[in-house]
């Protein structure tokens, strides 16, 4: 495929009346109106670099070529990437530059291109990936998301994304509404993940590195053990071993959660062990767990525009 052969999406049409995410803001991002994600019509990102803190089959030994986008359609109060999700950090780049970034990360021997919180830029990303592939990009594309995605937007990514890495944060409405203002989170995320699995099917690995598939992440929150068990039960009963489940204990209470005292602490070892034991009792085998002291700000990279 040459640089002139791919079918480029008309990004502006999507951004003029934006309904890319479940918030359905209907704002004209082209004219500067801002919706829930606070993103304009130009891609904005804060970092593009090799990242070594993903699941082993994503980071491998060389690292994952991770691009951190600014803005977020979910906006969790405890977000570890708060500086960029709240749009306080970020640099505008063209889709041509984004394609170059993908190729630069491939030249650095990245195992994949890892798109973090990309949902509000999907039309631009589709164009950038196609452009980069026409210029020699061959490594997999990872879609690293909150899980709060519209099925129609995920369908735009068929043939573009190889690996889906969504969160599945809540099953109950109370926590979803309190921490993410999304009482419909379960309904939205469950349908989005269903579409992701339809696109990829069962996981494909090469030399222990994932090339295709779905890994669903779940972050245990302080006091959220019972809801977390319901999440793991739902995922395993629905998908069995078709997907991998990553159970995370890296919750880090940052400054902005002081208004939520019930989550202004780390997860205890007992809480996490209880959840892992529950997953094993259910029969979960395709999974990842975190060991030791992982609740640390070391998991939060510097959003210093490296690689942008």
TrEMBL record:
Its cofactor is [4Fe-4S] cluster. It comes from the Bacteria. InterPro entries: Aldolase_TIM, MJ0674-like, Pyrv-formate_lyase-activ_prd, rSAM, rSAM_sf. Pfam families: Radical_SAM (PF04055). Binds 1 [4Fe-4S] cluster. The cluster is coordinated with 3 cysteines and an exchangeable S-adenosyl-L-methionine. This is Radical SAM domain protein. It comes from Anaerocolumna chitinilytica. One of its GO terms (molecular function) is metal ion binding. The keyword DNA-binding does not apply. Keywords: Iron, Iron-sulfur, Metal-binding, S-adenosyl-L-methionine. Residues 67-174 form the Radical SAM core domain. Coiled coil: none annotated. [4Fe-4S] cluster binds at residues 72, 76, 79.
């Amino acid at each position: 495929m040459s640089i002139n052969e791919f079918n480029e999406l008309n990004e502006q049409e999507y951004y003029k009346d934006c309904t890319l995410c479940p918030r359905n803001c209907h704002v004209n991002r082209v004219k500067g109106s801002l919706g829930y994600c606070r993103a304009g019509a130009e891609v904005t990102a804060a970092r593009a670099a090799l990242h070594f803190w993903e699941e082993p089959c994503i980071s491998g030994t060389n690292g994952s070529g991770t691009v951190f986008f600014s803005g977020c359609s979910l906006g969790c109060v405890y977000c570890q990437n708060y500086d960029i999700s709240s749009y306080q950090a970020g640099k505008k780049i063209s889709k041509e530059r984004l394609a170059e970034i993908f190729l630069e990360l491939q030249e650095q021997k990245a195992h994949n291109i890892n798109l973090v919180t990309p949902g509000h830029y999907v039309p631009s990303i589709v164009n950038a990936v196609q452009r980069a592939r026409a210029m020699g990009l061959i490594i997999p594309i990872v879609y690293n998301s909150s899980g709060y995605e519209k099925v129609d937007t995920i369908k735009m990514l068929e043939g573009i994304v190889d690996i889906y890495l969504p969160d599945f944060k809540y099953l109950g409405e109370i926590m979803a509404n309190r921490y993410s203002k999304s009482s419909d989170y379960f309904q939205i995320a469950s349908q989005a993940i269903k579409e992701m699995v339809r696109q990829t099917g069962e996981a494909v690995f090469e030399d222990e590195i994932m090339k295709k598939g779905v890994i669903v992440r779940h972050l245990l929150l302080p006091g959220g053990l019972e809801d977390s068990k319901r999440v793991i039960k739902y995922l395993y009963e629905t998908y069995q071993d078709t997907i991998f489940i990553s159970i995370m204990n890296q919750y880090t209470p940052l400054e902005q959660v002081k208004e939520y005292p019930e989550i202004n602490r780390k997860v205890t070892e007992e809480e996490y062990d209880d959840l892992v034991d529950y997953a094993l009792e259910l029969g979960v085998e395709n999974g990842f767990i975190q060991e030791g002291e992982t609740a640390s700000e070391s998991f939060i990279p510097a959003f210093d525009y490296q690689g942008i």
